Amino acid sequence: MADDRKIVDHVDLAIEAGELVAICGPNGAGKSTLLKVLSGEFTPSEGEVTIDGRGLDTWPPKELATRRAMLHQHSELTFPFQVHEVVSLGRYPYPEDRLHNQVVAQCLSRVDMATMANRTYSTLSGGERQRVQFARVLAQLAEDTSTSKLLLLDEPTSALDLLHQETILSIASDCAKELGYAVVVVLHDLNLASHWADRVVFLHEGKIAASGAPNQVVKAETIHQIYGLKAHILTHPDTARPVILPQRTVVVTQGEPDAQPSGPLDSEHHGNNQDKTHR
Question: Is pLDDT larger for residue 222 or for residue 146?
Fold first, then answer.
């Protein structure tokens, strides 16, 4: 709660091992707050968070750190750490760590940062820093996979180019499918959520507004209700999952040649000489 206002209200959410859940919703919906509650950073005023049936407050800190890792939206470091040293911070819960160097190198390689291992972290771009921090949380959980793991990612693609957005979410998906992690990721890009998530949870004003498989909940009416945005929902030709395109109004100035069709949404308007075309 903040100023007697509930930021997250009556959220009942179970994340299964092997599942990637995307948390979506407009700004201020409570997405990051929910992730901080799940990680134990925030204590809920009501209810509890459990891992394997145990409340977070019953876990010894170091043991909990081997089972749950959190990637924040922003991770600031003021000391001149080298990149490999930042990733090494994820190995703190393992005092007798014979695999330390191997794990750090593997995690850097997975996020395409191996060649920058000796660079000073503060000299990196925002996207490069984000990938290093992702490698750090991967290193934190890279131990005995016989125990359940919870990986929490808060907008992990916000500073990334198209290639690395796909790379990071592919790794997150592999953590769920191949390693059995329970993965929760906050995303603003609904198309990324629709493609990579097993389940999409829409938050609105601190409450769950919709929850289900992408084909069940990524609907035009749901997006309009939650975001106030009218959208076209298409089907991706490769995955058959929903693709979201905002509806837009194109204004054609009097006397200018008509816009030529550039895709399936334009074809129905080919030859239309009206000043305004609503898509």
Answer: 222
Structure tokens at 157: 């693609």
Query: Which of the residue ranges 19-23, 94-98, 264-268 would you say has the lowest mean pLDDT?
Result: 264-268
Give the type of residue at 232: H
| Cα 211 versus chain centre, distance | 16
Q: What is the pLDDT of residues 36-54, one digit of tens each?
A: 999 999 998 889 999 999 9
**Backbone φ and ψ of 178, nearest 5°:** -95, -35
pLDDT of amino acid 278: 42
Single-letter amino acid code for the residue at 151: L
Contact at 8 Å (CB) between 7 and 207?
no
Instruction: Walk across the sheet containing 20-24 and list its strands.
Output: 68-71, 150-154, 182-186, 20-24, 199-204, 207-212
Main-chain phi, psi angles of 168, to 5 degrees: -65, -45
Q: Are strands 276-278 and 242-246 parallel, antiparallel or unpaired?
A: unpaired
* Chain centre to alpha carbon of residue 77: 22
Measured CA to CA, the distance from residue 249 to residue 277 in angstroms comes to: 6
Question: What count of other Cβ atoms lies within 10 Å of the Cβ of residue 244?
Answer: 19
CA atoms of 79 and 178, how far apart (whole Å): 35
Closest CA relative to residue 165, chosen from 173, 157, 155: 157
Report the percent of the chain where pLDDT is more than 70. 89
Cross-strand pairs, 152: 70, 184
Residue type, 240: A
Find residue 51's DSSP bridge partners.
54
